[in-house]
Amino acid sequence: MKKKTNTEKPKIEQELTGESVVTGWGLGKAYFVGRAVQQQETSVVTISREAVGGEIIRFNEIRDRARKDYRKLIQDLDSESTVDASILDVYEHILDDPSFIGQVVETISAKMYDLETSIRMVSNDFIKRFESAGTAYLKERASDMVEVCEKLVSYLHCGEDGSRTKTFVDSVVLVVLRTFTPTDILSYDRSKISAVITVSGGKTSHAAILARSYNIPVISGVRNISDHINPNDEILVDSDKGTVYVYPNPRLVDAYRKKTHGEEIYRELRSKWNRPVYTRDGIKIEVLANISLPEDVEEAVQNGADGIGLVRTEYLLSNRKDMPTEEAHMAYYDSILSKGRGKHCTIRLMDIGGDKIPQFFDMPQEFNPFMGWRAIRIFLERKEIFETQVLAILKAGQGYDYSIMVPMVTTLQEWIEAKAFIREVAAKAGMPMPRCGVLFEVPLATLEINMFMKEIDFASIGTNDLIQYLSAADRNNSKVNYLYNPVEPAFLRIIRNAIKIANDNGKPLSICGEMAGHPLHTVLLVGLGLRRFSVMPRSIPLIKEIIANISFAEAAESISHIDVIESMEEMLEWLKNLNLRLLGDVLKRIPYIESSV
Length: 597
Ligand code: PEP
Ligand code: MG
Fold this sequence. Notes:
Shape: globular
Strand content: 15-25%
Largest sheet: 9 strands, mixed
Number of strands: 19
Radius of gyration: 26 Å
Bound molecules: phosphoenolpyruvate, magnesium ion
């Protein structure tokens, strides 16, 4: 039986400010991601006497595992690698150091602390000694000790397949002292993450998309975090206001606990919209779900998804040690397809690159990763990796209604080559060619969408990337967020054109970027002619409720006005008025629209 003891003293309330990236509020103890060695020392977990032997055996096992991993890393280093192999030897020395081993074993058996606590405590002692040493050489050993400690602790939260999910006893507020990444969420038990505070990260970064779909509020751009927050401090995050309260007073906490967030209305809409939606004048609009993990499908189905419009398959690679085998791929698709209750599912081939780089993937250093080697560009060069994925989709997809989508296509030539390869894999396996489509998220392809029409079965617009490429504003960078805007007139005219071309050619087109899931944009997108939305599961009932209350013809007629609007500010104002005019009181029933309009 493990018991957690907290030795922190109470403190007085302080307020910090930042920028809201995902709205909502959350309360929990501060947990510093990736700085566990020096920061989290106050959290101690004790074990029973019977558990001591097991913890020592585990210690030897994870040391062996770390040694093997470091050796493999040395073997894999190529001549151009910037990693110095001698540093890896140093890590091995630490792992075999009798004094380190002895002290960890002693801490487990004498103090009866669990393995993680013992490794952290002993490492901390070493780090302090190294840091106060006179020579530069010894000072540098402190960071080696941090590396080895983090490596060992990481195995303690690893599953058999190398996936890792750390659990917490109480709710935590994750504190990320760098740019926030998807792994920061996927490495922990999500049900215990009540909020995230980070130094930087934009609203449509992949980490923010994940947090939003799991209803985890995020505040970014908080300055000097470590001067104000210590591990285990009690934190209240109000992302709607952009405020972080450190040691909030109990009355404030009570007031937040009483907030309902429109949950009743949300529940009501959720049970109402477990069916297809039509506009008031009878046009059917599909509302599909974007998902990353098999468990998201259940939520999507419960929220009334008409299908799955985007499976972000690269999340299959998160927290893994190696490329997944064909069997691992198959298990993932099988689980998604079987949970989807026969509804259509669009599986996107892995969008590796940009901010989604698996730990094990041999990615060259790039100055501009979002403009670099990503998605289809990797696919066409490393076909063997994607052959495994395509084959697994074909096999798992037998008997299901599914299609394959390829991300980041820039030219028609690329698409034709990718499609020919999928056909070849299908032919080799003796399986039928699935329906295949393009994710339009690169301006060049989107502007030339008409060229693709004969060659695709369907299209989807990835507005998250399209906006960043059109406005040259990094989606991860909150500093340039003011330029990253889905209601920019020029951008809206571009997507209107793409929707029209697809509609005229009878090719289904969806929008699967974040803008489609925001109730503020629903009338606008229907007016632009969109008949297929693909959004995070939580948004589905809200989007359907709006669609049911508008007329397709009326929305389309109003939209011609976007041609005369010159600025984003003017567009926003016009859009708010349009929403009020066409939706009136319905707006009041949409839980999230008020704060965002
Ligand atoms: C997009 O770019 O809009 C998209 C759906 O893909 P992702 O957010 O995964 O890059
Ligand atoms: Mg994209």
